From TrEMBL:
UniProt keywords, alphabetically: ATP-binding, Nucleotide-binding, Transport
Gene Ontology terms, MF aspect: ATP binding; ATP hydrolysis activity; transmembrane transporter activity
Family note: Belongs to the ABC transporter superfamily. Macrolide exporter (TC 3.A.1.122) family.
GO CC aspect terms: plasma membrane; transmembrane transporter complex
Pfam families (alphabetical): ABC_tran
Domain of life: Bacteria
Protein name, UniProt field: Putative ABC transport system ATP-binding protein
Keyword Cell membrane among UniProt keywords: no
Annotated InterPro entries: AAA+_ATPase, ABC_transporter-like_ATP-bd, ABC_transporter-like_CS, ABC_transpr_LolD-like, MacB-like_ATP-bd, P-loop_NTPase
């Protein structure tokens, strides 16, 4: 579903060049739950933002469902993003003057869904995250864990095929973090592919796949895991398994 080949990203300012990603190769198959870990500044958010087409890259290629995103217009990119990708951020990114319902509804409005479809999706998403009774609350009236569950509801109401989560439990205490992790596992079991940045080794273990990034370079532990694969098997075949 996602294929990155020799993808590099350099941030240039007047004073310095930062090689945020160096020749990254990655394949993510439909239905995977992958955890991405690495030191601060190693390129995790940059990778996630590029996968979410929020940021461009300098060289290499990114194929999403077999099609390169290179050269797509902004309009085409935002359509693709809207239809296929959901985002969850560490800081929830909810609009504080909007009710829970309205927060979840906003991206659905952008997509031009009609009111009855919007309501149905919002109801379902709120049921799943267990916050239906709080639909008329404002974000500030909820705990951090509940706010993150609203953000998850907002993401899944769009019925994305890929969920990109950048340290979704980074601002939560351990109990709430566990609830959010369990919710993500449930969403993954429904078929949504998930890529999650985390600092928590326990979460990385629970995900089906653990990708590490250091200094803009990927170290994908799944390459070492498939014991049933003969050692001489080419990388592409192993990754596609
Ligand atoms: N918009 C930007 N302009 C310049 N440098 C940036 C920008 N975004 C990120 N960087 C740099 O790229 C590197 C990777 O950043 P990031 O992907 O945010 O790391 P992580 O999420 O792993 O902490 C860092 O050195 C960071 O300073
Ligand atoms: Mg980051």
């Amino acid at each position: 579903m996602i294929t990155l080949t020799n993808l590099s990203k350099i941030f240039r300012t007047e004073l310095i060049e930062t090689h945020a990603l160096r020749e990254v190769n990655l394949q993510v198959n439909e239905g995977e739950f992958a955890a991405l870990t690495g030191p601060s500044g190693s390129g995790k958010s940059t990778l996630l933002n590029i996968l979410g087409t929020l940021e461009n890259f300098d060289s290499g290629d990114y194929l999403l469902d077999g099609k390169s995103v290179k050269g797509l217009s902004d309009a085409a990119l935002s359509k693709l993003r809207n239809e296929k990708i959901g985002f969850i951020f560490q800081s929830f990114n909810l609009i504080k003057d909007f009710s829970i319902f309205d927060n979840i509804e906003l991206p659905l409005r952008y997509r031009g869904l009609k009111a009855s479809d919007r309501k149905q999706r919002i109801d379902q998403a709120l049921e799943l995250v267990g916050l239906h009774a709080r639909r008329d609350y404002l974000p500030g009236q909820l705990s951090g864990g509940q706010q993150q569950r609203v953000a998850i509801a907002r993401a899944i109401a769009g019925e994305p095929r890929i969920l990109l989560a950048d340290e979704p439990t980074g601002n939560l205490d351990s109990l709430m973090a566990r609830q959010v992790m369990e919710l993500l596992e449930q969403i993954n079991q429904r078929g949504c592919t998930i890529l999650m940045v985390t600092h928590d080794p326990e979460q990385a273990r629970r995900a089906g796949r653990h990708i590490q990034i250091v200094d803009g370079q990927l170290h994908d532990s799944t390459l070492y895991q498939p014991l049933s694969q003969p050692l001489h098997q080419p990388l592409a075949a192993v990754q596609g398994a």
